[in-house]
Amino acid sequence: MTDTGDEQADIIGERLILGTGFTEDERPEIVERFTALGKRLRSYPADSVDLRLSVKNRGRAEQKVTLECRLAGVEPLVATSTEEDLPTALTEVREDMIHQLDKLKTRRDPRHDRPHRP
């Protein structure tokens, strides 16, 4: 039986592209940090998910971390952080992306459109 944590890390590991400012050596740590994001993405077919992580001006006061998520049939979702501490910035973009995915799911859930029963 497969551990669900491994499955969630797998979708991140398979679909995450490390862009500007990151190296492949950092992938295992980033994938581990983004495992909670994998939980939100598992309701989408893995081949319809594309993630891209980049950082500009790494290690400087004007550092900006960007996480883009593209899902089939949905406008791209983008989370950014200007936090100077890279681990904190990664956590911020992860949490923001989770929030955006939760909002997207709520909007798309047909139960959301039903009138409230008194």
Q: Can you tag this structure with a few keywords?
A:
20% strand; Double Stranded RNA Binding Domain
Question: Summarize this, please?
Answer:
The protein has helices spanning 4-15, 27-33, 35-41, 86-108, and strands spanning 16-18, 49-56, 64-71, 77-81. It has 118 residues and is an alpha+beta fold.
Structure description:
Helix content is 42%, strand content 20%. The protein has 118 residues and is α+β, with helices and mostly antiparallel strands. It has a single domain, classed as Ribosome hibernation promotion factor-like (Double Stranded RNA Binding Domain, 2-Layer Sandwich), CATH 3.30.160. It has a 4-stranded mixed sheet. A hairpin with a 5-residue loop joins strand 3 and strand 4. Helix 1 packs across helix 2, helix 1 packs across helix 3 and helix 3 runs parallel beside helix 4.
How many H/I helices?
Answer: 4
Shape: globular
Look at the structure and name the CATH superfamily: Ribosome hibernation promotion factor-like
- In the CATH scheme, the class would be Alpha Beta
Oligomer: single chain
Largest sheet: 4 strands, mixed
Instruction: Specify Rg, calculated over alpha carbons.
Output: 16 Å
The first-to-last residue Cα distance is 44 Å
Which fold does the CATH topology refer to?
Answer: Double Stranded RNA Binding Domain
The average pLDDT score comes to 86
Task: Please give the order of strands in the largest beta sheet.
Answer: 1-2-3-4
Count of individual beta strands: 4
What proportion strand?
A: 15-25%
In the residues, how many domains can be counted?
Answer: 1
Question: From N to C, what is the helix and strand string?
Answer: HEHHEEEH
What is the second-level CATH architecture?
A: 2-Layer Sandwich
